[in-house]
Design a protein that fits this description.
mainly alpha, 4 strands, about 425 residues, two-stranded antiparallel ribbon, L-leucine binding, 19 helices
Length: about 425
């Protein structure tokens, strides 16, 4: 239930790792508008859009530890309508955030008994954007292919001798406290594992019993059509939890997620499409001069979800401040120029434009293979593979590869937030 493979990779940049862990901890475990079980379920919904088992498995386990209803793990049909109504904005944010409008926001805020408050919705939007972007990093750095500490085989884990990885990267008192909490959780998780297995097995048996009883009643009543419906209900709706999205213990005693992520999605064929700027419709383009994170998004999100704006802003600034002189030197430019080229290229793919930037620089700075890699990790990370990583990045050191993946994570997250927060602002106006 911990982000070990992710923190292994981020550990090449300890200052960023510290900022990331603070934000992750605040979003999931500190006081906020949303209940803890709902936070993890929203994370499951977000990760499922990109078929990211690593994150789904993590949050399935944490959802149960937070007291979540195991029946929800059977799929979207078994969750409260309020949560299910979030599916549309989750889908759009993950793949085509430029389609979000104030009408989507209004629909969520004005659905009688299932309505969201503004604070709850902002918390949910930040969670969705965080998990979508983190899925890009997970695939980009190979954590999805191998959920062990080292990530993908071709990505060598950070070697720190006999020191605990987190101890070596902790840079302040907050990190030390977080380490203490994580160690305690690690011990707790071992003690909880048997109890978790028993709970899931009991639910499994009870569900099978109910299905068998219903089928028996159907047969006794001679309702052939009714029996057929009962069988369909038992299979399509994952009544057998071992075939659905429930966590089950594998041979190593680890709790793993399930096999069918489709249970957490509606409209699975909805995906990224190239954003094309039509000359006759300039209103499609999102101009940062009109709505920016610094001047608009930060204050709105911080007002509705206390302190999260400061944490996000620190993370954005931290990734911008990471040293990348070696990369830039090989590309024949200043580090800031190279990083801005990557950042603006990612935003451009989501229709976000900077009036003061010459986009011809992107083609000069970024080789074609690197652009293909960045676009894949950003827009459809589930299609990333180890061959793509190795082939396109031979000239980069491992820490530099991680750095570029961090830029992808943060640029993508900010892009989603800009569209969502602008829609919320338009609704409020």
């Amino acid at each position: 239930g911990r982000l070990e493979a992710v923190t292994q990779q981020m550990g090449y940049h300890p200052q960023y790792l510290d900022s990331f862990l603070k934000t992750q901890h605040y979003l999931m475990h500190m006081d906020g508008p949303l209940p803890f079980d709902c936070r993890h379920y929203i994370a499951i919904m977000a990760a499922a859009r990109h078929q990211c088992r690593y994150l789904v498995n993590l949050h399935v386990l944490q959802f149960l530890r937070a007291g979540g209803d195991p029946q929800w793990l059977r799929g979207l049909e078994f969750i409260p309508p309020k949560l299910r109504n979030l599916n549309e904005i989750n889908k759009i944010l993950a793949h085509r955030p430029w389609l979000i409008t104030k009408e989507h926001i209004e629909k969520l805020l004005k659905i009688s008994e299932w309505s969201w408050s503004l604070a709850e919705l902002v918390h949910a939007v930040v969670l969705l954007a965080h998990c979508h972007a983190l899925a890009s990093f997970v695939f980009g750095c190979g954590c999805e292919q191998d959920e062990g500490l080292g990530g993908r085989g071709s990505l060598k884990p950070l070697s720190l001798g006999n020191h605990c990885f987190c101890e070596a990267t902790a840079s302040n008192s907050y990190s030390q406290e977080l380490l203490r909490i994580n160690r305690k959780r690690s011990l707790d998780s071992c003690m909880e594992l048997d109890s978790l297995r028993e709970r899931m097995q009991r639910i499994h048996v009870e569900t099978e019993g109910r299905d068998e009883m219903r089928l028996q009643q159907d047969r006794e009543e001679g309702e052939g059509q009714g029996a057929e419906v009962g069988v369909q209900g038992g299979t399509e709706h994952c009544s057998d939890l071992s075939a659905g999205l429930s966590p089950l213990a594998d041979t190593d005693g680890e709790v793993t997620g399930a096999t069918n992520l489709a249970c957490y999605m509606q409209d699975p064929d909805f995906g990224y499409q190239d954003f094309s700027r039509r000359d006759e419709d300039h209103s499609q383009v999102f101009r940062v001069q009109d709505y920016s994170w610094e001047d608009h998004g930060f204050s709105l999100v911080n007002r509705l979800y206390s302190d999260i704006g400061h944490l996000l802003d620190e993370k954005f600034r931290m990734v911008d401040g990471l040293q990348s002189s070696a990369i830039a030197k090989r590309q024949g430019c200043e580090p800031s120029v190279f990083k801005r080229g990557i950042w603006n290229y990612i935003h451009c793919m989501f229709g976000i434009r900077y009036d003061d930037y010459d986009y011809a620089e992107v083609n000069q700075l970024l080789e074609r293979m690197l652009k293909v890699y960045i676009k894949t990790v950003t827009c459809y990370p589930e299609k990333t593979n180890s061959e793509m990583f190795d082939r396109f990045w031979k000239q980069f050191k491992h820490s530099e590869k991680v750095h570029v993946n961090l830029l992808i994570l943060e640029a993508r997250m900010q892009a989603e937030l800009l569209y969502a927060l602008q829609a919320i602002t338009q609704y409020m106006i």
